[in-house]
Amino acid sequence: MADQTSPLSLWRRYLEFPLIYKMAIGLLAGVVVGLAVGEPITVIAPLGEVFVRLLGMLVMPLIIVTLIAGVSAITPARLGRIGFKVFLFYLVTSAFAITVGLALALAVAPGTGLSPPGDAEEEGEDPPPVSETLLDIVPDNPFAAMVEGNVLAVMFVAIAAGIALTLMRGSDEARLRELGEFLRRGVDGAVELVFLVVRGVLQYAPIGVFALIAVVMGETGVEALGPLAKLTGVVYGAIVLQIAVYVLILLAFRVGIGRFFGAAKDPMATAFVTRSSSGTLPVSSRAAERMGVHEGVYSFSLPLGATINMDGTAIYVGAATVFVANVSGAELTLAELVTVVLVGVLASIGTAGVPGAGLIMLTMTVSQAGLSMAPVALVAGIDAILDMARTMCNVTGDLVATRVVARTEPGMLRGSETPGDAAGDDSEATPS
Ligand code: ASP
Question: For 252-274, b where at least 16 C-beta lie within 10 A, e where not — what string?
């Protein structure tokens, strides 16, 4: 009999232990150790940074190979329809999210009675003009777009390649068809390869989770939350509400909640600790695979969502703007509230899902609404804690859209061919 304590058998037991439990243990241990040790815990920051880099290294290859594979598996007309549905879903849920954030903050009034920090008025940032954001989607150099991490531009190139591949495979010329099939097999192989690396990287996740959370707790500490407890409560409360709405949407489309969250919990936990929806892409794509969603949907909806769909961030921007107004004793008029909604949504389109992006959107919104910039410094002090929850919400929103759109498109769910057929919905998908 093999020795139960040999390194090999311990490693095997580690591999067999469910990932979410390993991550939960890392998370709890990180909170405890971070709070107990305080600031000096930052020495272990590289352990967390390695995890973020491992995920980051997979983002661009993953977007490229899954999108080419996904787009070349469907017709351009189908792609257009899926794109339209995904976009509509993102727009509606984002508008709802920012309204929830604003409404809850107006009801609870976080920030009243607090005084703004005395130091200098910081300069706010203006959102880039919409025309520039749109133009940036078309890269003049695809390799530069990859290096810069410009997700929308890379998506543009991959979609063009995917459509060209579809045309090659459907060509009248035997030579083109043959080459198309050859390329298609290569892309399929590359998708499998990237997911295999994702699985490997996830085995490091518990250590990364531990280090990331310990550093945030050690740096921020619970005391920092004190005066901002109300704002934190509003943001976390509104995010819980938003997730309840997701559950209702899933139920309305007769999606099995258990199976959805069974697969979504890994990306949700990863988003919580890495505070980056772009960085979480490899994990959320793997979760979509496990839900049985065809790559024709998720290869498009997830990277797009990581860039433009940020429900948690919208909640935060709404709530924090009310907080800023309250601290500086300003009354927000209806017109200003509308500005907040519009600038919040527009700013989120051009901003990538990286840690702290929401804070930049907040400064844009505050400056557009003509409010004082000083109270933003208060929010910045606890931004990491708020970023964790909002990123988790952002990633959940992307997955809900992905799952729901797959449900409404025939053939886009493995294990259920007919949309609306609830019976096939909870069958086991190909595990990845
Ligand atoms: N960190 C968030 C994300 O990656 C963006 C934000 O800062 O709100 O989705």
Answer: ebebbeebbbebbbbbbbbbbbb
Q: Kindly list the protein residues whose Cβ atom lies closer than 6 A to any atom of ligand 1.
A: 275-277, 310, 313, 353-358, 387, 390-391, 394
In a domain, 418, yes or no: no
Range of the domain at 117: 20-408
Nearest atom in ligand 1 to 280's CA:
4
Q: Classify residue 421: in a domain, yes or no.
A: no
4, pLDDT greater than 80: no
Nearest CA to ligand 1 atom 6: 358
Report how far ligand 1's centroid is from the alpha carbon of 419 (Å).
33
Q: Count the domains in the chain.
A: 1
CA dihedral 317, 397, 273, 145 (to 10 degrees): -80
Mean pLDDT of the 361-373 span: 84
Between CA 128 and CA 306 the distance in angstroms is 19
Closest ligand 1 atom to Cα of 351? 5
pLDDT tier at 250, thresholds 50, 70, 90: very high
Residue 422 is predicted with a pLDDT of: 37
* Residue 419 forms part of a structural domain: no
How many angstroms does the Cα of residue 258 sit away from the middle of ligand 1?
26
Count the Cβ atoms, other than its own, within 10 Å of residue 194: 19
- Which tokens in the block code for residue 151? 């997700």
- Expressed in angstroms and rounded, the spacing between residue 239 Cα and the centre of ligand 1 is 13
In a domain, residue 12? The reply is no
More confident residue, 400 or 223: 400
CA of 277 to the centre of ligand 1 (A): 6
- CATH number of 222's domain: 1.10.3860.10
